[in-house]
Design goal:
Elements: H1 7-13, H2 26-31, E1 34-42, E2 49-56, E3 61-68, E4 76-84, E5 91-96, E6 104-110, E7 120-123, E8 133-138, H3 149-155, E9 162-165, H4 199-209, H5 213-221, E10 224-226, E11 237-238, E12 241-242, H6 247-250, H7 253-267, E13 276-280, E14 284-288, H8 302-306, H9 312-321, H10 334-349, E15 354-358, H11 382-396, H12 410-423, E16 427-431, E17 437-444, E18 452-461, H13 479-489, E19 493-497, E20 502-508, E21 512-520, E22 530-539, E23 545-547
Parallel strand pairs: 8-9, 9-10, 14-15, 15-16, 16-18
Antiparallel strand pairs: 1-2, 2-5, 3-4, 3-6, 6-7, 8-20, 11-12, 13-14, 17-18, 17-19, 20-21, 21-22, 22-23
Helix pairs in contact: 3-5, 4-7, 10-12
């Protein structure tokens, strides 16, 4: 089944009701009546898809969802009644059923007074043999740093079937914190001005972001599979705390964590499932785990581990062989690990070509070059210089620099690698979090962890939509020199770009996965122009990234 897609209709609709491109104040963000923040769809199945909208009435409002095979809605084939609940911030979600596999549809919502939402476009997952499937991969969208040009570029494409957002959909910081007021792009002012802590804070921040026209256009163009990382809650979150949460000032972590999860599920086109999988016919199984707050142990801190120790080399060795190598450390927990590892085996046994793990943080092993301390200018913030000095010291002991990624949980990564190998999986890992673009050949386990024993799979790690990367902290160092230095000390690193923003698109076929990093020309002005791209492929059974 196929329908004609009118891209002009969707692009035009993305601008309806938005007025000027500058972000309005808090009263305008939440105070209007009617359909306020567009539409979205997510978590598609063979015969179903979840639809989302927000409608503000005097209280609860009963809406009618319509799904049609044509943009004019002359052939309505599914839908249903749904309530935009006042106690859910006037958001509404409905899973519509009875759809055909692998088909594109249009959808909209109708209010009690006859007002109609903007239209959206979505699709179901295919079944049987699938010759090609397109995926868009996004992460790390900090609105004050710039325009969401990556969203706008992707929304205008016709070769994407599904988008995956693997976290940091928004950021929790107070206005002027990250970025500073001087760095903030005009017209990209967030609400509320304070850090989001309360229920009202989290809701207003989502409302602020979701007025962005390019984000609305992306949601209206494709179904999304989404998972939070840390900033949807607070920086460097883990099961019972976070780096940026102070219980004495901000209350119990359990309360804040509960609020963050509640609002995420109100505002995003997601179900309440903490983790899930999605089947793309015989082509691929997409696994969407939760690696942040279900069971993740607190991140290790190299600086704290060696503080006060006279013999730095011995202190680092003790840390490497002790806390860092602890076999009980986990990102997902035993129950979720079993679900994932059984899923690898079942997917492969069923004859599915690819096992795609769409998760939050970098899996490939990353050391810092020993000369990295020279990258940071003397007038850099003290925190930046201390962090870099610690990363260099860790590298002297063979340790990775990012303890918030899989590098900080080597035993958990080893278990995942072993499960993928046992299943003979064709593993493709998708990730975000770091703000930079990386391509990895997975298999390196690190000092004391078995070295590089096998090719396990590959990783396409996406760069950020707007959040700054290495270029913000290594000013004056040519990006090509920085990338070469990183690749020289990391044998599994097949590609990196440390200076540009954008997104990744993937073409999945039975014999090959091709990933392209798209680099936006600018984020401080609103434009969908690209500065370039880089494409790499992995052939089935090869488990090796190659330039295309």
């Amino acid at each position: 089944m196929s329908v004609t897609i009118d891209r002009r209709l969707l692009i035009k609709a993305s601008m309806l009701g938005l007025g000027a491109l500058s972000i309005p104040g808090a009263a305008q963000i939440l105070g209007g009546r009617g359909f306020t923040h567009g539409v979205a769809s997510g978590e598609p199945g063979l015969n179903s898809v979840l639809l989302w909208t927000r409608y503000v009435g005097s209280g609860d409002s009963k809406l009618r969802a319509e799904v049609a095979t044509d943009a004019a809605f002359t052939k309505v084939v599914s839908g249903g009644e749904v309530t935009a609940r006042a106690d859910a911030d006037h958001t509404a979600k409905i899973t519509v059923t009875g759809l055909q596999p692998g088909a594109w549809y249009f959808y909209r919502f109708i209010a009690p007074d006859g007002r109609v939402s903007r239209p959206g476009r979505t699709r179901t997952l295919p079944q049987g043999d699938v010759s090609r499937f397109g995926i868009g991969l996004f992460s790390c969208s900090n609105m004050p740093f710039g325009w969401f040009n990556a969203y706008g570029h992707a929304a205008a494409r016709n070769d994407i079937d599904l988008v995956i957002h693997c976290g940091d959909y928004l950021y929790e910081y107070d206005r002027g914190h990250y970025p500073t007021l001087e760095e903030t792009v005009p017209g990209r002012v967030i609400e509320p001005a304070n850090e989001m802590v309360t229920l009202a804070d989290y809701r207003l921040r989502y409302a602020s972001y979701r007025l962005d026209p390019d984000l609305q256009a992306l949601h209206a163009a494709f179904p999304m599979i989404a998972q939070w990382d840390d900033h949807e809650l607070v920086n460097d979150a883990y099961i019972d705390g976070a780096e940026n949460h102070s219980p004495d000032r901000e209350g119990a972590w359990s309360v804040r964590k509960s609020i963050a999860q509640r609002v995420y599920r109100e505002w995003m086109p997601v179900s309440d499932a903490a983790y899930d999988s999605f089947q793309i016919g015989t082509l691929a199984t997409i696994f969407r785990p939760e690696t942040r707050i279900t069971a993740r142990n607190k991140q290790l801190n190299v600086g704290e581990a060696v503080a006060g120790r006279g013999d730095l080399a011995k202190a680092l060795t003790d840390f490497r062989d002790g806390a860092w190598s602890d076999k009980d450390r986990t990102l997902m927990g035993a129950d979720q690990e079993k679900w994932l590892y059984d899923g690898f085996a079942q997917s492969k046994k069923s004859g599915t070509a690819w096992q795609i793990l769409a998760q939050q943080v970098i899996m490939g092993y990353g050391r810092f070059p020993l000369n990295a301390a020279q990258w940071v200018p003397s007038n850099a913030p003290e925190m930046v210089r201390k962090t870099l000095a610690g990363a260099v010291a860790a590298s002297q002991a063979g340790l990775p620099y990012n303890m918030d990624s899989w590098d900080g949980y080597p035993a958990a990564r080893n278990r995942l690698y072993d499960a993928a190998l046992a299943a003979d999986a064709d593993l493709v890992v998708l990730s975000g979090d770091s703000h930079n673009a990386w391509g990895y050949n997975l298999g390196e386990r690190g000092p004391g962890q078995g070295g590089v024993k096998d090719r396990v799979g590959v990783e396409f790690a996406g760069h950020s939509v707007t959040s700054p990367g290495f270029e913000a902290y290594a000013k004056g160092v040519p990006p090509a020199d920085l990338a070469k230095a990183l690749r020289d000390v990391n044998p599994g690193m097949a590609f990196c770009d440390t200076s540009q923003r954008g997104y990744v698109s993937l073409d999945v076929t039975p014999q090959q996965v091709a990933g392209t990093w798209h680099f936006m020309r600018d984020i401080r002005t609103r434009t969908t122009a690209l500065s370039g791209s880089h494409r790499m492929t992995v052939q089935r059974r090869a488990k090796l990234l190659q330039d295309a």
